[in-house]
Amino acid sequence: MARFPSYLAFAAVAVATVAGLAVQPKVTGVAPTADTVIIAGAVGLHWEDVDREQTPNLWRLAETGSIGSLSARSAHRPTCPADGWVTLGAGNWAAGRLDHQVPVEPEPEQPASTEPCPPLEVTVEPAHAAGAYLQAQEELVEYNQWGLPWGAVPGALAGSVGCTVAIGEGAALAGARSYGRVDRYHPSLPRDPAEAARLLGEYCELVIIDLGTVSGTGAARAAAARRVDDALARVLAARPPGSLLLTTGVADLDGSSRLQVAVADAPGLPRGWLSSATTGRTGYLQLVDVAPTVLAALDRPPPELVFAGNPIDSRPGRPTDLSGPVAELAAADERGQQVRTVSIWFLAGLTALELALFAAAVPLLRDPDRDDPNRRPQPPGGPRFWQLVRQVGPMVLVGAALAIPAALVVSWLPWWRAEAAAGGVFALLSLVVLAVASLLAVRSPLFRRTLGLVGASAGVAAAAVAVDLATGSWLQFNGVIGYLAQDGGRYAGISEPGLGVLIAGTMLVAACLAEQAPRRRRPLVMVAVGAVGVVLAGSPYLGADVGGAVALAVGVCVAAALSTGGWVTAGRVAWATGLGLAVVVAVAVVDLQRPVEQRAGLGSMLNQLAEGTAGYGLQRVSLANVSAFVSSPLTVLAIGAGGFLWFALLRPWGGLRRLFGVHPALRAGLAGAVVASLLGGVLIGAALNVAGAAAAVGVPLLTLTSLRLRRRSAQRVARTAEPLAPTRA
Predict the structure, then answer these.
(1) How would you classify residue 727: left for phi > 0, otherwise alpha for psi between -120 and 50, otherwise beta?
(2) 75, 93 contact by CB (below 8 A)
(3) 307 dihedral zone (left: phi>0; alpha: psi -120 to 50; beta)
(4) Omega before 292 within 30 of 0, i.e. cis
(5) Left (φ > 0), alpha (ψ -120 to 50) or beta: where does 306 sit?
(6) CB neighbour list of residue 135: distance below 8 Å, 6 or more residues apart
(7) 167 has which bridge partners?
(8) Which of 425, 543, 440, 546 is nearest to 480 (CA)?
(9) Whole-angstrom Cα distance, residue 306 to residue 312?
(10) Phi, psi of 299, rounded to the nearest 5 degrees
(11) How far apart, in whole angstroms, are the C-alpha atoms of residue 652 and residue 249?
């Protein structure tokens, strides 16, 4: 009975955590409906090509319709024209060529290939009744179905409607059925307005048109954009009334991953921003969203193989003047190009800096009294050098722990507008933020207390991520510490480095607070603080990462079981495992009650396991883990930090064991952070990226506290070893 209040508090925290993870935001957009859908696609059409004078038809269409930026992600990176057209017709990430290596999941830190794409070559054979046939279609379907991890079926869109008209070679790739038949095919849009109107409105409910290609630079690119606009003018003139017109970019030619134009216009569709449940970000959608949109607008049932995308909708809030939104979308694309390069250099520099700090800390840990001028022999560099190291070292270690949060804060400034000097401007701003934050931390009264130093620094790191999540995660979106819209992987919520920072900050803050509580109340403090982090990571309104939330919940349970000190017993493991499983099962049950398109990762995985189709998802996660492991600098940081912990800090001379003996809750927090970061990386396909970001925050702080503890212990030993002063009789 004495423990009943604690059990009741545990249950209340678990219920509140499940409620925070289960609540879904309501969709407020307007979905388009029509009797005929026209998809007008162009290769390489970006928002910087849209101009009131150069492309007047596209400009007028964007003024009356809804607009957004489209990520042309496919099975290959970058998406070449054949890949883009086949992906459009498959409604899933597909490949349009058979002579390509097996792709891997694209990562924000992995730069795209800069090699130009091959030209689009499609062999269209005439067939009966004005139709056509693609001989290589069946082989392409087999390659995508069995040779790639996405399970895409080229032709799934055409097979879900009654009849399809394809105009142009690219449209033939998108409009062919899975066995190669194109219902009606025309090499180009007829010049005769009456014939064009009959082709677009009288034959089929779905029309796919290849408007052409926009490539090159300067005047050549402007001329190509005008040709595409002229073709769109003929489509607008022949468009049947009451139809839905989707004008989109499809792919790129120069080997880069760029955001494409997306415009939707239909009767009853208000002027606004395009979005979809795939991205969860207003103004952004993916190429795989086009096929589900067509079926939803025509009120057709989806195919047996579920599309990777979701129907688009129009959301309010777009200004009446189109100049501002177009400039905003073009600037977002430009920012992504700058951020990709700077992100690689920042993570590589952070890894090198922290590994150098760990190496420099080893001699100080082994000999904590190096700056004593009275000791013999004198250490290399002299006592003044080591005194300087001891004065500057704490500030540098605190700065290293706050490097990722500082980069997150700098993303609020438009540093990327410096173009060629963008990297230098970002580095300068980051150093200024770090210097100010480190100086404030060192001058703070909390710096004199061991737990105050760790808890305050970790709390600042976690607070930076939490504030960004609460305000829409705009600092992580297209940020150096975040994800890029061009990659088509994530558009809202928490990033992989952000999850690592949140895990480390939450667990260390929980440990420091639990250490202040009575011994019996420490597990409750751990669970209460950890529940806040779980909700931040997994709530659809905030982090929207169910895998990360599950991993953090497991880490919190491990930390709660160890927070009172002592050995790990079977009873502790049992109740910690039971509490974690209860939260995970409750979240899964609530998630399964939602419609399929609204389910989070956990509910979708359980549904796929029940249907026997989970193999594609497991294969994608495995490939993503392999890609993240070999391509990210955070992998090196995670391995280096783990080696430093094991071979230095946890040695008898490292100081961390003594620190854990004095503060057992800190040991529990570290154990929970290690478990959560490793498990979270595996679940979300990030390998050691999450653990590397967590180590970047936690290990420098533990190093600093270990150095201070070793220094104070050496001073106490020296005082007790001094001979007593002579006394008078």
Answers:
(1) beta
(2) yes
(3) beta
(4) no
(5) beta
(6) 123, 125, 180
(7) 186, 209
(8) 425
(9) 16
(10) 60, 45
(11) 62
Instruction: Give the number of other Cβ atoms within 10 Å of residue 588's Cβ.
Output: 18
**Cβ atoms of residues 428 and 418 within 8 Å:** no
Place of tokens 């690689």: 344
Strand partners, 186: 167
Q: Look up tokens 């009767």; give the residue.
A: 267
Residues with Cβ within 8 Å of 315's Cβ and at least 6 positions away in sequence, in order, are: 28, 29, 30, 272, 273, 274, 275, 282
DSSP state of 483: B
Pair 163, 175: CB distance under 8 Å: no
**Nearest of 617, 616, 615 to residue 600 by alpha carbon:** 617
Q: In terms of Cα–Cα distance, which of 455, 544, 560 is closest to 499?
A: 544
CA distance 519 to 527: 14
Burial, 598: exposed, middle or buried (Cβ in 10 Å; 0-12, 13-18, 19+)?
A: middle
Cβ atoms of residues 708 and 390 within 8 Å: no
Rounded to whole angstroms, how far apart are CA atoms 189 and 594? 44
* Strand-pair category, 37-43 with 244-249: parallel
Q: How far apart are CA 610 and CA 595, in angstroms?
A: 16
Query: Which is nearest to 606 in space by CA: 621, 591, 628, 620?
Result: 591
Please give the pLDDT value at position 541. 83
Instruction: Please give the pLDDT value at position 13.
Output: 67
Residue 557 has a CB neighbour count (10 Å cut-off) of: 28
Low-confidence ranges of the chain (pLDDT < 70): 1-27, 99-115, 255, 305, 367-391, 447, 567-569, 572-573, 575-577, 579-580, 583-584, 587-588, 590-617, 619, 712-729
Please report where in the chains the tokens 């193999």 appear, as a residue. 615
- Interhelix angle 382-401/403-410, nearest 10 degrees: 50
Q: What is the pLDDT of residue 385?
A: 52
Q: Hey, what amino acid is at 471?
A: T
Q: How far apart are CA 542 and CA 176, in angstroms?
A: 41
Q: Tokens for 175, please give them.
A: 């409009």
Listed in order, strand segments (DSSP E) in 206-340 are 206-213, 244-249, 259-265, 273-276, 284-286, 312-315
Four-residue CA torsion sign, 419, 421, 424, 430: negative
CA dist 645 and 641 (Å) reads: 6
3-class secondary structure, 163: coil
Residue 23 is predicted with a pLDDT of 67
- Separation between Cα atoms, residue 590 and residue 604, nearest integer Å: 12
Residue 504 and residue 697 in contact, taking contact as beta carbons nearer than 8 Å: yes
Contact 50, 62 (CB under 8 A): yes
DSSP state of 39: E
Q: Are 155 and 137 in contact (CB under 8 A)?
A: yes
Q: Report residue 312: phi and psi, to 5°.
A: -85, 165
Neighbours of 11 (CB within 10 A): 12
* 3-state secondary structure at position 470: helix
Residue at token pair 């007008």? 40
Q: What pLDDT score does 43 carry?
A: 93
Q: How far is CA 220 from CA 49, 225, 231, 252, 261, in A?
A: 12, 9, 17, 16, 19
Q: Which residue has the tokens 């177009």?
A: 326
Q: By the 8 A CB rule, do 228 and 216 touch?
A: no
CA dist 18 to 171, 358, 495, 565, Å? 47, 39, 22, 28
Conformational region of residue 273, where left means phi above 0, alpha means psi within -120 to 50, and beta covers everything else:
beta
pLDDT of residue 580: 67
Closest CA to 85 of 290, 256, 226, 282: 290
Compute the half-sphere exposure of residue 273: CA atoms within 13 Å on the CB side of its CA: 21
Which contiguous run of DSSP H or E holds residue 22? helix 4-22
Contact of 295 with 264, CB cutoff 8 Å:
no
